[in-house]
Structures are given as C-alpha cells and as structure tokens.
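> run fold Allergen V5/Tpx-1 related protein
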Amino acid sequence: MKKLIIKVIGVLLLICFIIYLFYSPRLKFDVLENPNKDTPKTTQNKDFQKQKTTSENPKLEKGVGTWVGQDLHSLTDKYGQADRVYSYKKGFKNYVFKQKDQYYLVTTRKNKIKSVYATGKNASVNPVEIGDKASNVFEKFSINPEPTIKVDGKAYELELSDADMKTQTLIKFNDVYAQIYIDQQDNEIVGVRYLDSEALMAFKPYQMITAKEDKKVKNNYKEIPYEQNANQLMTLYEITNEMRALKDAKTLKVNNDLAHIASYNLYEAIDTDSVEFTEEALKQKLDEQNISFVSTSQNVGYDFNEVPTLIHSWLNSDIHRSRMLNSKYNEMGGEVSNGYYTIIFIEDK
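> ok
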C-alpha cells in the first residue's frame, strides 16, 4: 500500500510538472534573427535542385514590376506625390504610396526606380496576384534556387534555402527579379517585391557571397542615414497593419507611449552582454508608465536590411505570427535601432 501511494504521488508530481511546463507564462520574447546573415554557405537546396538549363520566364508586360528601371517622375506624374519619402542606405531613397487596399514601397537611386514592394488586396503585381495560391507560382514559372547576379562587374552567388523557396521564392523576368512573399500556413501570396540586381545585392534577403572571393557580406548600422530608423519604424507599423488587413484582423492604433517603452527596453536589452527581452520587464515598464492593459506581447527581429522581409519572416514564424495577427490587440508601439526591430502589442482596458 505504501509503495502504491508513493507511485501515485510520483505520477501526480509528474503531471503537475508537465502542466507547468506547457502552461507557465512565457518569460522571454524570442528574437527572430535573419537566418541569411553572416552564415556560411549551406548545402544544396534539398527540395529544389538547381537546374542545368533554366527556361526563361516571359517579360513583364504590366503591373508594378514594369516600374523597375523607369524614371521616378513617370510614377509621380501618374500617382501624384508620395505619402512619405526618406533616405535609405548607400544612396537609395524610399517613397511610400498608399491607396485603398494598395501599399507600395518604391526604392530609387539617382531618380531611377530600383525596387517596388507591393501588398494589399488590390495591389497590381502581375503576373501573380495577392491572395493567389502560392503553389501556382511553382507550376507557372521557372525558378532557380542558386542564381548568380552581376553588379558593377562583380558576380554574386545567391542561395535560396528550403525555407526561402517556400516563403520568399525568387523569380527572374528578363532583367527584373520578383521576390514572392508567401504565407506558408495559408498557402497564399501576401506580397511581392520587384527589383533589379543592384537592389537585390543591397537588400540581401538571401544568403549571398561573392562568387570569386567566397566572402560573407556584413551590415554596418553606423552608416545609415539619420532619418532611416524613424521611417523604417513607420513602415513597420504600416506593413503590420497591411498584413492584419489581409487576414481580416482589425488594424492597430499607434501608441507613442508604447514606442517610448520599446525604445527604453531596447536600450536596456542591448546594453548587456546577453540581449534579452522579457515579459516581466515589459509589464513592469507598462505599469510604471501607468498604461492600463489586459494583455501584452512583443515581437523582436534582428539583422534584417529592410522591413518587408522581416514582417514576412514574422508571418511565417508561429509564435511571432500569433502576436502580430492576434485579434485581441488594438494598439502597438515600437522602435528600430542598431539592427533591432521591436514592436509591442497591447489589449487596452
């Protein structure tokens, strides 16, 4: 009888431990680091083998992809002045155009359009469409998972991982590339970025090495224009709400008090040897600032060159997706600094 009681107690303790393990509050917010940065060249893509002969895709005839290579004035003459303009690194400049169910982030250099990111239910992204089944992309177009691009006389090898192929595959249309952003969970196209080889090299959304020297390319966050971070934060807010709109979740109101807390928390987190963003620190700061809330969470990303790839990486990470698209939240505030992107979500009282 005594042995039986001991066994029963042991089983109960084990059950309690398992319940605690699965249902205890999450103490740390995971930092989603760019998997394609500062990593050695990977093994060949398992699911998508490199083709010896790749058939060419048809030239783009309409849609925002045809903007690439054009003079900026041809765009502003048609759509008017941009809603927002800001300098980007290495002489690039970003122009944000917003219309009903259309969001365009146009990147230029010397007044020539180098890249167009587009999302929204009515965005003109031919020959694909926002909301299309992603599986159609692999049936309709030729895709090379290990393309080589040339910029200023130098050759660069790109390597798309299995995850890249499934969430941000790259398609070449003559001299223009299309980065197809895919919601893997719903098998839907949720965004497209058309860009030339120079922009592709500058943004580095995939693993990239120089073909001859086999060197890794690193970021230097001290060499960015002073207004870039503040504008990248606004872009972070905007595309977050664009993703929520696509998923029929209510858009979030920007709370500047949350932005101040995000800035403070980021400063404290990166001022230590081990960067950590904890739930306890976040809730404590919210209480100190007398911000009433029912629930809160936070997304953090690191070492992404630009916002679209970060947002779509969050969308394809279960824990980050659940926070970004959660219908109970109604306010957000964030910070962009030193390669970190952080955004706080709250459900207010």
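The two ends are 53 Å apart (CA to CA).
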